[in-house]
Automatic annotation (TrEMBL):
Keywords: Heme, Iron, Metal-binding, Signal. It comes from Taibaiella soli. Residues 36-130 form the Cytochrome c domain. Residues 1-19 form the signal peptide. GO terms for molecular function: electron transfer activity; heme binding; metal ion binding. This is Cytochrome c domain-containing protein. It holds the Pfam family Cytochrom_C.
Amino acid sequence: MKRRLLILSALVASTYFFACNNSGNNTSSNPYTETPKMSEGKALFVNNCAICHDMKQDKTGPKLEGVFDRWNNDTTKMKAFIRNSSAVIASGDQYTTDLFHKWASTVMTPFPNLTDDELNKIVDYLKNGDI
């Protein structure tokens, strides 16, 4: 009986601790937490890109610091790659083929659902946003 009470007490205490520390009020430590006041470009980035990309460090995908230099400021090709990386790689484009091989032949998730306007907002956010 004492053992059950001890286990139940530990469970209640850990649940309380978890709930208090994850209340959602502390968003300042995560730059990719969506907030009501964020720009549409940042919201699109948070919802579609931040799971794999960070500005300062590689994650599942490459870091985005210096991304415009790596793409020679070719935002048209960059947006085509975001929409469907496989198609750009298949076209024989050297940069994207090298990128594909550098990342162990991992294909970026396609985003055919993003409109041209949404892609423009993501790119504008990467250029001007506070990431």
